[in-house]
Amino acid sequence: MKTYLLYGAKDIRLSEKSVPIPGDDQVLIKPKFTGICGSDVHYFQHGYCGNFIPKRPFALGHEFAGVVDSIGANVIGLKVGDEVAVDPSMPCGSCKHCKSGHYNLCLSMRYFGSASCDPHMDGAMGQYLVVPATNCYVLPVGISMAQASLLEPLSVAMHAVKQVDRIAGTSILITGGGPIGQLILRVVRAFGAHDVTVSDVSEFARAFSLKSGANKVVNPLEENAWKYYDGFDIVFEASGAPSALANGIQVTRRGGSVVLVGTLPESFSIPGNLIMNKELKLYGSFRFANVFEDAMNLVAAGIINLDGLVTDTFNFDDIPQAMQHALNKNGVMKVQIEL
Ligand SMILES: [Zn+2]
Ligand SMILES: [Zn+2]
User: Fold this and answer.
1) Which ligand is nearest to the CA of 263?
2) What is the pLDDT of residue 208?
3) What is the pLDDT of residues 129-143, one digit of tens each?
4) The pLDDT value given to residue 301
5) 286 alpha carbon to ligand 2 midpoint, in Å?
6) If you measure from the C-alpha of residue 101 to the centroid of ligand 2, how many angstroms do you get, rounded to a whole number?
7) What residues flank ion ligand 1 with Cβ within 5 A?
8) C-alpha closest to that of 188 among 236, 240, 254
C-alpha cells in the first residue's frame, strides 16, 4: 500500500508499506475522506506540533471516514463494505480519567495521525489502516462520507460547548473564525443561542461567519472594535491568540463563562483581576469525550449543518500540494483529501 509519511517541515514523502492485518478486535479501513486539521498543518509547517515532536516519520490524518475492508475474528456489529466514521481516540480505558468518563484526559491516550504517543500512530493519509472495531460508527442515513470526516473537529466543538450548562437563549462571542470557530458557531446555533458574534482579523473568516449564521462580526484590529460590545454570556476562545482571550475576558458579562479551546502559547499575561471581580468562570476544553456519536446523529438528522465548510478537495496523489494549500489563511476553510 501507499502512504504519505511526514519526515520533517514541508517534507512529506510517498512510501510503500505492507497492508496491516487487523487483530481479533480490529478492522481494516480503507479511508475515503481525510480532513486536514490545524494540527496537521502545524506538523507540516514546522515538523512538530506544540510539544508533540516526531521521533520518526509517520502518516498524518485523524479526521477520516472510510469503508470496512476486512474484520477481525471477534468483531460484531460491523461487516465488510460498511461505511464508517472513525473516532481517532484510543484511551487506555483503565486510568482514573478514563474510568470517570474523561477519557480525553487520559495520559496514555493514543491518537491516529499523532506524534503525541510513542510509537506514533499512523493516520489516514495512506491507503489502509487498522482501527479498533469499537472506534467505528456505521453511518446512518443522512450523512455522507465527506461530512463524516468532519465529525472529529465537530466533536471538538461540541465538547467545548458542553463545558457550559446552557446555550439556549444566550449571547455568545467566538474569538477565531477558523474551522473550530465555525463549528462552534453551528453547534450553538443548533442549540438555540439567540445572538452570536464572531471576531477574527481575517476578512474572509468574518464573511464566512456571516454566511454560516453569525449575527455580527468584529475585526479586533479596528480602533474601538469592542466599543459597542460587552455583556456576552459566554465567550469561546478558538483563535489561540492571547489578545483574543484578553478581549474576550473584557467583554464577558459579570458572572459569565469563558471557554478556552484554541491552542494558546505556554504562558502570557491575562486580565486576572477582571476574572476575579466579575466572577468569570474559565473552562479549558481539550479534544473530546463521549460526543462523537451524538455529533454524527445530529448531522444525520439535519440539526447541525456542515454545508460549505470544505472549501477545497484534493486527490490522494496531491496530498503534498493539499498540505501546502492548507497553509493559506485567505479563502481556505477546510481542506479535504478524497482517497
Ligand atoms: Zn483535528
Ligand atoms: Zn486512561
Assistant:
1) 1
2) 98
3) 999 999 999 999 999
4) 98
5) 15
6) 9
7) 37
8) 236
Q: How far is CA 9 from CA 32, 43, 178, 299, in A?
A: 26, 7, 22, 35
User: How far is residue 101's CA from residue 108's CA, in Å, rounded to a whole number?
Assistant: 14
The tens digit of pLDDT for each residue in 225-246 reads 888 787 999 999 999 999 999 9
Q: Where in the chain is the domain with CATH 3.90.180.10?
A: 2-150+306-338
**Superfamily per CATH, domain 156-284:** NAD(P)-binding Rossmann-like Domain (3.40.50.720)
pLDDT of residue 204: 97
CA of 105 to the centre of ligand 2 (A): 7
Q: In this structure, is the dihedral angle defined by the CA atoms of residues 39, 42, 43 and 49, taken in order, positive or negative? A: negative
Ligand nearest to the CA of 91: 2
C-alpha cell at 212: 454560516
The pLDDT value recorded for residue 50 is: 80
pLDDT computed for residue 224 by the predictor: 87
Among the bound ligands, the one closest to the CA of 114:
1
Ligand number, closest to the Cα atom of 49: 1
Q: What CA–CA distance (Å, rounded) separates 228 from 183?
A: 25
Return residues with CB closer than 5 A to ligand 2 (ion): 91-92, 95, 98, 106
**Contact predicate 257/283, CB 8 Å:** yes
pLDDT for res 230: 74
pLDDT attached to residue 226: 86
Residue range 2-150+306-338 forms a domain whose CATH class is alpha beta
**CATH 3.40.50.720 in the chain, residues?**
156-284
CA of 288 to the centre of ligand 1 (A): 11
* C-alpha pair distances (Å), 220 with each of 177, 199, 211, 235, 246: 12, 6, 19, 15, 11
CA of 256 to the centre of ligand 2 (A): 32
**With contact defined as beta carbons under 8 Å apart, do 98 and 91 qualify?**
yes
CA of 106 to the centre of ligand 2 (A): 4
State residue 51's pLDDT score.
Answer: 81
Residues of the chain with pLDDT below 50 are none
